[in-house]
Structure formats: C-alpha cells, structure tokens
Amino acid sequence: MSTPAPRLPAKPIDRYKWFFTAGVVGITLWSALGLEAKWSRLLDAPSDMWTLGRVMFTNMEAADFPDLIRAMWESVAIAWVGTLIASVFAIPMSFLAAENLVGRPIAWVTRQVLNLLRAIPEVILALVFIPVFGLSPMAGVMAIGIGSIGSLGKLFYEIIEGIKDEPIEASEAVGASRLQRLRWGVLPQVTPELASLILYRFEVNIRASAVLGVVGAGGIGGDLQQALLFKDFGTAGLGLIIIVIGTIAVDTVSGAVRRRIVAGPTGGGGGSSLRPTGRLPIFSRRWATGVDTITTVAESPSPH
C-alpha cells in the first residue's frame, strides 16, 4: 500500500511587499489628486504645442542670430568657470569625506556639508547672489560654482573610497608622509575618473546656466525669457534651436574627451587605436620613488 505524497506547505504571504506596493500606489494617487491639475488639458496639449511651434519656428529672423550666439557662449562660459570653481573646492573636500583616508567623524561632518550644499538649488543661489553682484554673469558663475560643490564632492569621495590600498601601503612602508601618500598613492588612481566627472558636470551646468538666465544671472536664458515676455516668438524659437544645438555639440565633444581620459593612453605612432599592433601595454607605478612609468613589452610567443 503506497503512502500519500507529503503536502508542501503553503507559500507564505510577503506582507512587506504588499504594504510597500500599497504605500507607493497611495502616495502616487495622493500626489496626483493634490496637484489640482487639469488632466483633461492633456488631450489638447499636442495641438497647442503644434500651434506654438509653428508660430515660433516660422517667424525667425537672421538678425537675431549674432546676439543669441553671444548669449549662448556666455552660458557656456558661465558653466565652465562655475565648474572649475566647484572642482577647486570639491576635490579637497572629497578627501576629507572618504572614510578610507580620514576617520569616520571627519568624513561624516564633511559629508553633511556636501549634503547641505547639494540640497540648495542653483536658482535659489542665483537669487541670493544677484543682490551682491547685480544682474550679471558673475551671479550665475557663483550659483553654479557653489551649487556644484556638493554633487561633485559626493561623486569624488565615492571614487576615492573604491581605490586599491596597495599603493598607499607601499608608499607608507617607505616612510612617505600623509601628503606624499595622497600624491603618489591616491591621485594617480583617481585622476582619470575625477577629470571625467568634472567634464560631465560641465555638461549638466550648461543646461543650468541657460535656466539661470531667466532670473537675470546672465546667459541665453535672459534673452529667451524676454522674447517670451514680449511675445517675440520668432526670437524665442531661434534661441531654443541654438540652445539645443549648442548643448548637443558640447555634450558630444565632452563625451569623447571623457571616454579618451578613462580609456587611458593607447599605442604610439598616432595610428588608430583599433589597429592590431601585436604589443601589450602594461601600466606600472613605482610608488616608492614617486615615478610613474608606462612600459610596453612585446607579447611573448606561445610555447609549442
């Protein structure tokens, strides 16, 4: 007489998952209903956008082109100088925020300072600096510079905390000071990533500088705001085209530079990096003497 197969226990109910899902759905419905938005206007939005686009992009005048190009260049300059200012402060603060370089109390305090700077929008900072510097690009530069310290500092110390400990231990073993350990044990490992993040932040700040112009902090945003205010839709449409093309161009060039920095040095001779050379690059650091060397050796033939 065969024994009946044992019954498997019922799968337990994942109450946490159901509570989490119900909470997300409830918050979403509460947010949507609390906005008091006219959702029925979404049906008319495509036709309204088509009408506005037709008015903006069919009445453009070539005479506005030079002034808008100068304003766009001013936005790029604001973003670049602001990014450099942020980098000058973010790099040393990131060393103080990395727990593998300093104690946890110092890292915690520094991170809170970075969190505070990151929590303040650039528009608010621009409104704070406009009474100091007036309606000038300097207000935009300071707003972007101060506003970018928190974001860059956070990205930087996360990169620093992921470095290898061997170079630092090697420099410490030969009696290097703390500053020398940072110079020869930390910086060579993180410099490519830091440079790439600085360029990426520059791309983000170009968009921010265009927005800051709306509040009078310089750049093409001010021209765009004035054009919309006086219903000069042709100038506004040309300004939008210049912003889009300029941003895409800067992103393309900056992205290529960032990829080149991260990829590191390639084979010599100026040839294409995709061409097989039969040579294997080996990167070695002489941490004890502080001399960075790059040696290239030929691949050894496989034994038969």
Please describe what this structure looks like.
The protein has about 300 residues and is mainly alpha-helical. The chain has a domain at about 60-265: MetI-like fold. Helix content is about 65%, strand content about 5%. It has 10 helices and 2 strands; from the N terminus they run H-H-H-H-H-H-H-H-H-H-E-E. It has a two-stranded antiparallel ribbon with strand order 1-2. The radius of gyration is 28 Å and the shape is extended. The termini are far apart. The relative contact order is 0.11. Mean pLDDT is about 80; it is low at about 265-304.
Short description:
With 304 residues, the protein is mostly helical.
Question: Can you give keywords for this protein?
Answer:
304 residues, mainly alpha, two-stranded antiparallel sheet, disordered C terminus
CATH class of the domain at 62-263: Mainly Alpha
CATH topology of the domain at 62-263: MetI-like fold
Distance between the termini: 67 Å
Element order, helices and strands? Answer: HHHHHHHHHHEE
Largest sheet: 2 strands, antiparallel
Category by helix and strand content: mainly alpha
Count up the helices.
Answer: 10
- Identify low-pLDDT runs: 267-304
Shape: extended
Question: What's the gyration radius in Å?
Answer: 28 Å
Number of strands: 2
CATH architecture type of the domain at 62-263: Orthogonal Bundle
Average predicted confidence as pLDDT: 78
* Beta-strand residue fraction: 5-15%
Widest sheet: strand ordering? 1-2
The CATH homologous superfamily name of the domain at 62-263 equals MetI-like
| Helical residue percent band | 55-70%
